Amino acid sequence: MSGIAKTPQPPYYAVLFTSQRTEVDKGYVKMAEKMVELASQQEGFLGLESACENEKEITISYWESLNAIKEWKENSAHKIAQERGKSDWYNKFALRVCKVERDNFFEM
Amino acid sequence: MSGIAKTPQPPYYAVLFTSQRTEVDKGYVKMAEKMVELASQQEGFLGLESACENEKEITISYWESLNAIKEWKENSAHKIAQERGKSDWYNKFALRVCKVERDNFFEM
């Protein structure tokens, strides 16, 4: 997945998904790739940043509005992935919805 | 570093630090550990989540208020680390300051 998302001027929204994975990998990578592809086609999607380290995973997705986040949550393929996540792939996770108030980008 | 931060009821604040590292490691791990220790002693600090995958790094820190974030930014040891980050450890990074409006925790 990508590096640093090129987001527009704030305000915009971020969904912070932080998780502890199980040792079950069955179908996970394929599903994760499909979800990124689907999310990026969704109206209001602004970008994604993700890093996995051993069992830890952090994925931040950026959105134009709370409504875009709601629609992504309700996406039917995404709902199936959410259920598989709970049954197979995650021991625990947190979801946080935030309003990005300011940002700074540095390139050295 | 820790897994999923135990944050209080929203609203609270999050600083999203997403970066692309250089190949320079000199002093990085030690400094990163010291910064986590210092931040956690700072008034208003609520928790931290971090994952590194190859050159990608995502660190999310949680704070009670914008003022607590400002004080951490101005911490003198942290300022030295910020300069070392720009000169040695990072090719590029983004910093985003967010207000967490809602959250959900799941344990399977």
Q: What does this protein look like?
A:
The structure is a homodimer of 108-residue chains. In chain A, helix 1 (28-41) packs antiparallel against helix 3. A four-stranded antiparallel β-sheet of chain A has the order 2-3-1-4. Chain A starts with 11 loop residues before the first strand and ends with a strand. Chain A has 108 residues and is an alpha+beta fold. Chain A has helices at 28-41, 66-74, 76-89; strands at 12-21, 45-53, 56-63, 90-107. The mean pLDDT of chain A is 94. Chain A has one domain: Alpha-Beta Plaits. Chain A has three helices and four strands, in the order E-H-E-E-H-H-E. Chain A is globular, with a radius of gyration of 14 Å. Chain A binds chain B through residues 3-5, 7, 10, 14, 16, 18-20, 49-53, 56-58, 60, 86-87, 90-108, and chain B through 3-5, 7, 10, 14, 16, 18-20, 49-53, 56-58, 60, 86-87, 90-108.
The CATH architecture name of chain A reads 2-Layer Sandwich
Kindly estimate the percentage of residues of chain A that lie in beta strands according to DSSP. 35-45%
Q: How many domains would you count in the coordinates of chain A?
A: 1
Question: Largest sheet of chain A, order of strands side by side?
Answer: 2-3-1-4
Which blocks of ≥5 consecutive residues of chain A have pLDDT under 50?
none
Largest sheet of chain A: 4 strands, antiparallel
Query: What structural class do you assign from the helix and strand content of chain A?
Result: alpha+beta
Looking at how many chains there are and whether they match, the oligomeric state comes to homodimer
Which pair has the most extensive contact?
A-B, 40 and 40 residues
Envelope shape of chain A: globular
Radius of gyration of chain A: 14 Å
Q: What is the helix fraction of residues of chain A, given as a range?
A: 25-40%
Mean pLDDT over the residues of chain A: 94
Q: Please provide the ordered H/E string of secondary-structure elements of chain A.
A: EHEEHHE
